[in-house]
Specification:
By secondary structure, the protein is an alpha+beta fold. It has one domain: Pnp Oxidase, Chain A. Helix 5 packs antiparallel against helix 6. The radius of gyration is 20 Å and the shape is elongated. The two termini are about 25 Å apart.
Length: about 200
């Protein structure tokens, strides 16, 4: 990971908030020959100073088999990112760059029991589908249907031991350069460019 003092957060709460806001991660393991990866939504829990990532994966997959063999995993959280053109700098005859935010969380994965997976899926569905009003709510599903499909997935819990991050938002540039970069991004038609401009304002 490309880490410089300019591009790090002042406190752990800022990093955890980023993880809470960017829930769709790349979960990486190792099967003994190659890295394996899958993209999954996770819930970040903080309990008694311990950080845990909760989610579920399909069972008959290469990454599931890798997690069974080797419980050491890494989850990559990615936020908004954008190309930063040096053409808007005070002295533009230099290299352009890229602004981005990312967190890498390493830890040990534990594959859940079927009972734990059932409860996990219920809580996840209830989060996005109102149990009282949604026709797709968990309590509206047939129990036989739920049990049939639960056989194809397994919940997991990652106990995080290391967290690294880079929040690169042009903090090492002059005020004039940062203002020019933000103005240029705000004029873009790309949503990610505009989001990076908003993130830069938080760090200016």
């Amino acid at each position: 990971m490309y880490k410089l003092p300019h591009f790090t957060a002042d406190n752990q709460d800022e990093i955890l908030e980023f993880m809470h806001q960017n829930t769709f991660v790349t979960l990486i393991g190792f099967d003994g020959e190659f890295p394996v990866a899958t993209q999954v939504p996770v819930k970040t829990l903080v309990e008694d100073g311990s950080v845990k990532l909760i989610g579920h994966i399909m069972t008959k997959t290469d990454h599931y088999k890798a997690f069974e063999q080797n419980p050491r995993v890494m989850a990559i959280f990615t936020g908004a990112h954008a190309y930063i053109s040096a053409s808007v700098y005070e002295s533009p005859a230099v290299a352009s760059t890229w602004n981005y935010k990312t967190v890498q969380a390493k830890g040990i994965i534990r594959l859940m029991t079927s009972e734990e997976t059932y409860q996990l899926i219920k809580e996840l569905t209830d989060k996005y589908e109102d149990p009282k009003t949604s026709p797709a709510a968990f309590n509206k599903m047939d129990e036989a249907y739920i049990q049939k499909h639960l056989k194809a997935i397994t919940g997991f819990e990652v106990t995080v031991s290391h967290i690294d991050h880079v929040f690169k938002m042009s903090q090492n540039h002059s005020t004039k350069n940062k203002e020019s970069i933000m103005a240029n991004l705000e004029q873009s038609n790309h949503a990610l460019d505009q989001e990076v401009a908003k993130e830069m304002k938080k760090h200016s």
